[in-house]
Amino acid sequence: MRPEVVAAMMPVFTEHFGNASSIHWFGQQAKAMMDDARQQVARLINAETAEVVFVSGGTEADNLAIRGIADSQRAKGRHIITSRIEHHAVLHTCKDLEKQGYDVTWLPVSRDGLVDPEDLRKAIRPDTILITIMHANNEIGTIQPLEEIGQIAEDADVYFHSDGVQSTGKIPVDVRKLKVDLYSMSSHKIHGPKGVGALFVRKGTILKPTMTGGGHERNRRSGTENVAGIVGFGEAARLAREGLKTDMPRVATLRDRLEAGLKSKIEFIHVNARNAPRLPNTSNIMVDYAEGEGLVISLDLKGVAVSTGSACSSGSLEPSHVLTAIGKTPDEAHGSLRFSLSTMTTEEDVDYVVETLPGIVERLRELSPYYKKV
Ligand SMILES: *Cc1c(COP(=O)(O)O)cnc(C)c1O
Known about the structure:
Elements: H1 3-14, H2 25-45, E1 52-55, H3 58-72, E2 79-83, H4 88-99, E3 103-107, H5 117-123, E4 128-132, H6 146-156, E5 159-163, H7 175-178, E6 182-186, E7 197-201, H8 227-243, H9 247-265, E8 269-271, E9 282-287, H10 292-301, E10 307-308, E11 310-313, E12 316-319, H11 321-325, H12 330-334, E13 336-340, H13 347-366, H14 369-373
Parallel strand pairs: 2-3, 2-4, 4-5, 5-6
Antiparallel strand pairs: 1-7, 6-7, 8-9, 9-13, 10-13, 11-12
C-alpha cells in the first residue's frame, strides 16, 4: 500500500469508527468519509457517485455483474458471450452458469491476445443477455478494443460488463466512452488495501443482488461497509488518477528498459503479446529451453518475485489458459515469466533483474536436454 493510503485509513480504526448506516454523528462521519471515497473512485472512471457500488474485491464485482445480469435477464435469454482469456473470477463464474443451463460462447483471441470485434458481432443472438470481456489482461497486459466492443453491445441492446481490475488506474478509463454497463475494480491492484473493490453499475441497469440483507449500497450489495478499506481505496484511486500522466509513462519506460535489457543479454527469449496495445506495467516473457518454476524459484532466492505461466495445482502443471489461448504450447507456457512493475519500481530494480536473470537462465539451460541439441 502507498503510505498515503495507510495514513488515510488509520483514523477510521482509531477515531472515526462509526457504522456508516447509523444515524448518530459518528455514523454520519463514517458515511461522509465513504462518500468522499466513492467520489474518488467515480472520478477515476468518469462515473457518477451513485453508480459506484462497493464490494469485497474484483472477484465479487465480477460475480455480482455476471450473476446479477444472468439472474435478472433469464426470462429474456440464457446466452452469454465472453473471451477465452478472462480472469478466473469471470471464467469460473461463466463455467458455473453453463452448469446451470446458460449457454456461453467463448471467443478466441489473436496471437497477441486480442478479441476480434467481428467475431463478437457474429456471436450475438436474439437470446444474448450479456457480453463480458475484460479491459486489460492480467497475465500478458493486452488491452482490448473496448470502445468498439461497447458500441457493438449498445447497437445490439445487450448488457456489457468488463473486468477493469487491471486497467483501472493504469490507463485512462471513461465508462461513458467505453459504453460499459458494468465495470469491475479492485483496490489492491492500485496500491490500496486488499478485500475491497467496486462495481460500476450504470444508472437504470437491472441487476439482481447476489448478497441480500439490510439493503446497503442502494440495495445492490447488502452488508455493513468496510469503511476503512473503502477510505483506503478512495485515496488509492485519487493517487492513481493523479499519476496517470506522470507515473504510468515512467513505468512504461521501465518496462521497455527491462525487455530491451533482457533481450540484449539472453538468447531465445520473446515478449508475449508485444504487438498489441499493452498495459504499462505488465511484461510477459517467454524463455525457451528453460523451465518456469525453476526460474521463479531461482529469482525468488535473489529477492525477485515473479510468476510463471502455469499454476502448480494438485501436483500437475496446468499451463495458463491465457497463454494457451494465444497459441503457446504447454512447454512454452511453462517457460513464460510475468513481471509486474509499479509506481514503486525503480531503475535499479530493473537493472538488477537484467543482471541477475541471464546467469539463472544459463544454468537452467545447461540442465535442459533440448538446449544442448541447438
Ligand atoms: C486480481 C484480479 C481479479 C480479482 O480481484 P480480487 O480483488 O483479488 O478479488 C479479477 N480480475 C482481474 C483481471 C484481476 O487481475
